[in-house]
Design brief:
The chain is mainly alpha-helical and 43 residues long. Helices cover 33% and strands 0% of the residues. It contains one helix and no strands. The termini are far apart.
């Protein structure tokens, strides 16, 4: 596959400095657990 514009850089914000993504992360984990019929807890 040939892409029209190559990616020059990527920024990973693992500690929440740029964006507060904790809520989205927890939702993704919850959705993944539900899909596998597992129970996710808050602990």
């Amino acid at each position: 596959m040939i892409l029209p514009n190559a990616v020059c850089a990527a920024i990973f914000d693992m500690d929440g400095t740029l964006l507060d993504t904790e809520r989205l992360y927890l939702r993704a984990i919850s959705d993944a657990c539900s899909a596998m019929r597992l129970e996710a807890d808050d602990g």
